[in-house]
Specification:
The chain is 43% helix and 15% strand. By secondary structure, it is α/β, with parallel strands linked by helices.
Length: 194
């Protein structure tokens, strides 16, 4: 009887993991236009499933998410034109223990640091993003870091036409770059890219 129960549990786990893998592949292999809002809905769906591993939160949830920048930050205007800024000295260690009270000034400082980072933007072609990630792959996934470096993307519009974003996500997922954020551009980023 115990053996039958074990086989049944293994069968259920196998089916759950198979469905999870198929859902992820369907989402990432699509060659349709990429939508930030659809990505966020998909991410929220994935986070709601307790059986999936989610990278630890590296940002304080009280910070303004419109200003989150990773050590590698890309602004994507359209399928052809983008910008990037790299701050490879920026590591995000896990915070342990009690955190001090978060103040209004902390939030202002966070936005100020984010906008300073945006001032380092360099124009590139959107197709070059994978090349930049490939050149910096060892730095991004360095096993000596407590956490890998975060890669962030900000899209000008909710919809990015073509498969560029899917190609980027597939490249990152296949090469161990699993810590990334995708959001819409904030007003400051839009102004800097005009």
């Amino acid at each position: 009887m115990k053996r039958i129960e074990n086989i049944l549990v293994l069968f259920l786990l196998y089916n759950c993991s198979k469905n999870k893998h198929e859902n992820t592949r369907t989402f990432l292999n699509s060659k349709n236009d990429f939508s930030v809002s659809a990505f966020e809905k998909k991410l929220n769906y994935v986070k709601g499933n307790d059986s999936l591993e989610i990278p630890p939160a590296i940002y304080d949830k009280r910070l303004n998410k419109d200003y989150l920048n990773g050590a590698f930050h890309f602004l994507i205007l359209n399928k052809d034109n983008s910008y990037y800024a790299i701050d490879s000295t920026r590591l995000f260690p896990l915070m342990c223990g009690n955190r001090s009270e978060f103040s209004k000034q902390d939030s202002i400082n966070f936005i100020r640091e984010s906008t300073t980072h945006i001032q380092k933007l360099k124009p590139i072609k959107t197709a070059e993003i994978i090349k930049i990630l490939k050149q910096n792959q060892n730095t991004i996934v360095n096993a000596d870091h407590i956490n890998p470096l975060n890669i962030s993307f900000a899209l000008k519009n909710d919809i990015l036409q073509g498969s560029a974003m899917y190609d980027i996500i597939n490249f990152m997922e296949n090469n161990g770059m699993k810590l990334y954020t995708i959001r819409r551009m904030n007003e400051y980023e839009i102004t800097k890219t005009k």
